[in-house]
Design goal:
The structure holds three protein chains of three kinds. By secondary structure, chain A is α+β, with helices and mostly antiparallel strands. Helix content of chain A is 25%, strand content 32%. In chain A, the strands form four sheets. Chain A has a six-stranded mixed β-sheet, with helices on both faces. In chain A, helix 2 runs parallel beside helix 4. The radius of gyration of chain A is 25 Å and the shape is elongated. By secondary structure, chain B is mostly helical. Chain B folds into two domains: 50 residues, no CATH class; 211 residues, MetI-like fold, CATH 1.10.3720. Chain B has 15 helices and no strands. In chain B, helix 4 packs across helix 8. Chain C is an all-alpha fold. Chain C has a single domain, classed as MetI-like fold. Classes of the chains: A alpha+beta, B mainly alpha, C mainly alpha. Chains in contact: A-B, A-C, B-C. Chains B and C meet through helix 1, helix 2, helix 4, helix 5 and helix 6 of B and helix 1, helix 3, helix 4, helix 5 and helix 6 of C. Chain C: Keywords: Cell membrane, Membrane, Transmembrane, Transmembrane helix, Transport. Chain C: Pfam families: BPD_transp_1. Chain C: It comes from Candidatus Thiodiazotropha lotti.
């Protein structure tokens, strides 16, 4: 087992695209680290760099404290599960599982033993003589996992391994992956674009955007204390609402969404003294959709559309935002119970000011 | 559109063209099975296609007059070597161009594309002069070696390999396979269609080779079939039955191969039309 | 080119590509440059004259040689007649076969069969078909279709019929090849286009002109290119059927080249002829690229 470290890693492709910039991340031994972000954020590149499929432009990569920049993939002691599994189509499941072991020049008996073990663990025993094209998506996924496991590597790399499966199977295999990872204790780096997957799988999550690391931490911490508006909006379904916010010294009120909500800021300042630095200045405030409630004392908004989920509903409304460069104008509230609201109706929404998150105009969280 | 007559009309056209296309073949086959004297006499009417009183005399004559087996083996050997060595050599190069990063790759690939348009005919004379200088004339080698490396084959392999999913090779690399190992264990088994295509196209273009063997060979021992039938044709006495028998035997092996692997032939030829 | 695999692999790549590259260099590129160089000399095997640089003298002599000019002309006539005929015939056959009903596979096999015949064998068989006298198959056939008004001829020794005889032979052998390529092109046309056109009220004829032909354009250009180049490389049939005669009536550039380089040992002259052949091929390829590129700009 081993820890993994990225130290100030850059990746610039031949044609000049910067896929990764000053990327630093330390993954602890035995940890499940999920890299998550929108497509093109550099998460797959980060994984491929570690696998040795791409070369690092600048910086250092360490596996178990050993510098592996110049190391070929097979000598990094890693195994990878690909998005489309990359099973060798002309080999049976058994041959697929054996291939990496043959490359390691293990003895016949050792190969047989490891293949049997992996097949047993993943319930592949009955499928050993079949070819990949005869298998279902879930079975292929398990074979791909098996091929990674037989090597008994120090690190597992998984590149969106569940994205080719249907929703139900995805949940099922997700639990499976957690179980295998916990029982084997192998350091695992898992790439996904799906924040639900990230939240449920990761010991810690690293969120990337545009080649830069945004925040690392346990899922709940990231959810509760996003480091910036990107993380705030990215996590959660739907993500956090962002409003413009101003502390009005004259009225003693915090004005949200161009004054739609007016809240006395004294109690807020008492809890968060650093806010006073932003008196009268441009600022952003964020609020999770589930923090809204209907009340007669709230601000009046017009319902734009409603999505009913049965036990709850999502109510979309427009609240103006005066900060330039913020395109999220449609806000959303997650309200309990069946949808009693109709498009065009007015409803009054309020919330507990304690639940507000504050960001600078540039989007960084205010400590 | 008169839909009722449309299909019968198509059948009629096909039948008409089909008869025109098959008649030389039928004529050849029938003529090879009848006594020499009757081949020419009966060529002007329906009897041309009907061998009344079938005899294998012509076939026996061919073997008595020339060493047919020798020519056949020559052709098989020469073409087998060209196709076999060509598949290996050109596919390796195609793979190196498609998947490896190396100095000079773009430049050399440009050269491969450039020599693709030079036909054998355009270089036959100096090539002949060159092989004469090194004393290669009248050998198997001179009929094989110049045709192993083939720019079009390299290009076909290149386009196929570049279209293969890259994850397979990445998986193999992580599993610890080197480039050659990956090529032979992972790429080869998954590239059967392109190998079949190139094999068939090479075979089709080389099996009938006439100009080059005519230039570089003078002894019967290394001559291939296409040259042999031309010589046999001009060998007195002119016996058409024998010549046609020679022709039937000459085309039979490839015809059988063609009928067995027809789907691949058609696919291979159709492939030549898909170019950049 | 797409992004190659990770690390630079100069050695492995050199190892993998060297056999093919050396072969192409040694047996294509070098002879080609050699041909160009030779064409400017007076090299003649067994000649007592010293090797001399002659500049464009060989080319001047070639173009003032009536046999060569005739050969070039014959190739041109061959192209002008055979390429359209063969392409149209192949297209008709492909269109007839581009549908699913019983027997199409059989007919496709039949039309393709001559392609696997070596040209030399085809030539020999057709020598017999063109046999002189009323008993010759071609004579008899023409007599039949002209209802008895045909005078038997000795095709291969007739200045007016020798070249057409070779043309017919070539068409018989080559049509199947084109047909298969065109058939593949036809099958690549999305069926939705025809469905949309039918809904828009286009009949079969309109569908052919407005869907099939435009969609097939690049394939057709390619087929024409290949056939044209093949026409300029014409040799086997000439050598076997007519020996270029009578009186150069069926000679071709390649036949003249072989005559010069081998029968008369004029290596330099033969080399110059092949250079001309190459320039023609280059010109045709360039024309094809231009036409094809225009098409890309339009769409």
């Amino acid at each position: 087992m081993a820890d993994v470290e990225y130290r100030h890693v850059d990746k610039i492709f031949e044609e000049g695209t910067k896929a990764l910039e000053k990327f630093s991340l330390a993954v602890e031994d035995g940890e499940m680290m999920v890299l998550v972000g929108p497509s093109g954020c550099g998460k797959s590149t980060a994984l491929r760099l570690l696998a040795g499929l791409e070369a690092v432009s600048n910086g250092e990569l360490l596996i178990g404290g050993r510098l592996v920049n110049e190391c070929s993939p097979q000598h990094r002691d890693i195994a990878m599960v690909f998005q489309n599994y990359a099973l060798y189509p002309h080999m049976t499941v058994r041959r697929n599982l054996e291939f990496p072991l043959r490359m390691m020049k293990l003895s016949k008996s050792e190969i047989a033993r490891r293949v049997e073990d992996a097949a047993h663990l993943l319930t592949l025993t009955d499928l050993l003589e079949k070819r990949p094209r005869q298998l279902s998506g879930g079975q292929r996924q398990r074979v791909a996992m098996g091929r990674a496991m037989v090597r008994q590597p120090q690190v597992f790399l998984m590149d969106e391994p569940l994205s080719n499966l249907d929703a139900k199977l995805r949940t099922q295999i997700r639990t499976e992956i957690i179980r295998l990872q916990k029982s084997s204790g192998v350091t695992t780096i898992y790439v996904t674009h799906d924040q639900v997957e990230a939240m449920t799988l990761g010991d810690r999550i690293a969120i990337l955007n545009a080649g830069k690391l945004q925040q690392v931490g346990p899922p709940q911490e990231l959810y509760d204390h996003p480091a910036n508006t990107f993380v705030a909006v990215f996590l959660g379904n739907p993500g956090m609402n962002i409003f413009d916010a101003t502390l009005n010294r004259d009225t003693g009120m915090l004005q949200l969404a161009a004054g739609a909500w007016q809240i006395p800021f004294e109690p807020l300042l008492a809890r968060k003294p650093s806010l006073s630095e932003y008196m009268e200045g441009a600022m952003l405030a964020g609020l999770r959709p589930e923090m809204f409630s209907t009340s007669t004392s709230g601000a009046e908004v017009t319902v734009e559309s409603v999505e009913s989920l049965g036990h709850e509903c999502l109510v979309y409304f427009t609240a103006s935002c005066v900060v330039p460069g913020r395109d999220q104008k449609t806000q959303v509230a997650r309200l309990p119970g069946p949808a009693l609201y109709e498009t065009g109706n007015s409803i009054q929404l309020s919330f507990d000011p304690e639940r507000l998150h504050f960001f600078t105009a540039d989007g960084d969280a205010i400590a | 559109m008169t839909h009722r007559l449309f299909v019968p009309m198509i059948y009629l056209c096909l039948l008409l063209f089909g008869l025109l296309f098959i008649s030389p073949i039928g004529f050849m086959l029938a003529g090879s099975l009848k006594p020499d004297a009757r081949v020419l006499v009966e060529a002007g009417d329906w009897r041309a296609f009907w061998p009344a009183g079938v005899t294998l005399d012509n076939y026996r004559d061919v073997f008595a007059r020339v060493d047919f087996a020798r020519y056949l083996l020559n052709s098989l050997f020469i073409n087998g070597m060209i196709v076999g060595a060509g598949l290996l050599v050109n596919s390796l190069a195609g793979y190196a161009f498609a998947r490896l990063l190396w100095r000079g790759r773009e430049l050399l690939f440009g050269l491969v594309l450039a020599v693709m348009i030079i036909p054998l005919e355009a270089i036959a004379v100096p090539l002949f002069y060159m092989v004469s200088l090194v004393g290669w004339r009248d050998t198997y080698l001179v009929q094989i070696l110049p045709f192993i490396a083939n720019a079009f084959s390299v290009y076909l392999f290149y386009t196929y390999f570049i279209g293969l999913p890259r994850e397979l090779e990445e998986a193999a690399r992580i599993d610890g396979a080197g480039v050659l190992r990956t090529y032979f264990s992972i790429i080869l088994p998954n590239a059967k269609p392109v190998f079949a295509t190139v094999a068939i196209l090479t075979f089709l273009s080389q099996w009938g080779a006439f100009l080059w063997p005519l230039m570089v060979t003078s002894s019967e021992t290394v001559r291939p079939l296409p040259l042999a039938i031309a010589t046999f044709h001009s060998l007195p006495p002119l016996q058409w039955g024998d010549i046609l028998a020679f022709g039937v035997m000459m085309v039979l092996p490839i015809l059988v191969v063609f009928l067995l692997f027809q789907r691949w032939f058609v696919r291979g030829v159709a492939h030549t039309g898909i170019k950049g | 080119m797409r992004q190659p695999l990770l690390d630079s692999r100069n050695f492995t790549a050199a190892f993998m590509s060297a056999p093919a590259l050396v072969g192409l260099l040694l047996f294509v590129a070098v002879p080609f440059l050699f041909a160009v160089a030779l064409s400017f000399t007076n090299l003649r095997l067994g000649s007592p004259l010293p090797l001399e640089w002659m500049g464009f003298e060989q080319y001047r002599r070639i173009f003032s040689d009536p046999s060569f000019v005739r050969a070039l002309l014959n190739n041109l006539v061959f192209v002008v007649v055979v390429v359209p005929l063969q392409t149209v015939l192949a297209l008709v056959l492909a269109l007839l076969l581009n549908r699913r009903f019983y027997g199409t596979t059989w007919f496709r096999t039949l039309f393709f069969m001559p392609v696997v015949f070596p040209l030399s064998l085809v030539a020999v068989v057709w020598v017999l078909i063109f046999a002189p006298g009323p008993n010759g198959m071609m004579n008899a056939f023409l007599d039949l279709v002209s209802l008895g008004s045909w005078t038997p001829r000795d095709f291969l020794h007739d200045p007016y019929f020798a070249l057409p005889a070779i043309m017919l032979t070539s068409i018989w052998q080559g049509t199947g090849f084109q047909m298969v390529i065109l058939l593949a092109g036809l099958q690549a046309v999305p069926a939705e286009l025809y469905e949309a056109a039918a809904i828009d009220g286009a009949g079969r004829r309109q569908q052919f002109w407005h869907i099939t032909l435009p969609q097939l354009r690049n394939t057709l250009i390619f087929v024409v290119l290949v056939t044209t180049i093949l026409a300029f490389r014409l040799f086997d049939q000439v050598q076997i059927m007519t020996q270029g005669g009578p009186y150069d009536a069926s000679t071709t550039v390649m036949f003249e080249t072989v005559e010069a380089a081998f029968a008369r040992q004029q290596v330099a002259r033969g080399a110059a002829m092949t250079v001309i052949l190459f320039l023609v091929v280059l010109l045709i390829t360039w024309l094809q690229r231009r036409v094809a590129r225009q098409e890309r700009e339009v769409t």
